[in-house]
Amino acid sequence: xxxxxxxxxxxxxxxxxxxxxxxxxxxxxxxxxxxxxxxxxxxxxxxxxxxxxxxxxxxxxxxxxxxxxxxxxxxxxxxxxxxxxxxxxxxxxxxxxxxxxxxxxxxxxxxx
Length: 112
Fold this sequence. Notes:
Layout: E1 2-6, E2 9-11, E3 17-24, E4 33-38, E5 45-50, E6 57-59, E7 67-72, E8 77-82, E9 91-97, E10 101-102, E11 106-110
Parallel strand pairs: 2-11
Antiparallel strand pairs: 1-3, 3-8, 4-5, 4-9, 5-6, 7-8, 9-10, 9-11
């Protein structure tokens, strides 16, 4: 199982980023996928999760209405669209596959 995140970067407050996670080594369309994040000095927290078919999603209260998780089972890829970013969204974002299997993470920094 392997997951590789991309799309992080530096963005100003109020800006947007789209994270991608390319997965391989398992039957992607049969499993739920999730995004987690870890802010400096804090524990990792689950940000969003999507069902295997993409019909069901759930979000942390802190990102509801701003973040959208989606997936393309034809590309074995899961996305996290992040809008209206806030400084408190800063952290390393991880894609998690069944196992659990974690990617290396992608840094998101929200700062003016």
